[in-house]
Amino acid sequence: MDAKVERTFIAIKPDGVQRGIVGDIIKRFEAKGFKLVGMKMMSASEEHLTKHYIDLKEKPFFKDLIKYMSSGPVVAMVWEGKGAVKTGRVMLGETNPANSLPGTIRGDFCIDVGKNIIHGSDSVESATKEISLWFKDDELVTYTSCAFSWLY
Ligand code: IDP
Ligand code: MG
User: Fold this and answer.
1) Which of 3, 51, 86, 127 is the most exposed place for a label (fewest CB within 10 A)?
2) Strand pairing partners for 39?
3) Which ligand is located closest to the Cα atom of residue 65?
4) What is the chain's alpha carbon radius of gyration, rounded to the nearest angstrom?
5) Is 13 in the pocket of ligand 1 (CB under 6 A)?
6) Whether residue 119 lies in the annotated active site
């Protein structure tokens, strides 16, 4: 795969939506140079979220996590660009906002691990799985950004 078309799944969680941070988050990914190729707002069902977080099924916080994630609408997005998965995680910060540096999204906008406002794929493999779970093929767009030759 061409490195420049690596895709990551980013979701603004219900607390990020309710607290009005959607624009700030989108702005950071745009300003970085990543290309938005899919976006929708949805209320995810517990069944859908259980599929998304299946690897965490045995964790003590799993039930609360599903409740939290289904407590309101989320903004699901796919961002594309060189190193989008790894760089996306760096932009998010650590899972626990308390360990997230200022300048990261979790470091700047939230306090508690149970209300950490944003999800980002942790590997190219999980990104592929998550994108196909959240988006149909025809919900993702292919286009050339006019900034492309100024970014690469
Ligand atoms: P990540 O979102 O940084 O990839 P994961 O370990 O995959 O972190 O956990 C998924 C989500 O589960 C976290 O973003 C957070 O919302 C929640 N979570 C993780 N650890 C805890 C915890 O110790 N207590 C409560 N919620 C947690
Ligand atoms: Mg994770």
Assistant:
1) 3
2) 77
3) 1
4) 15
5) no
6) yes
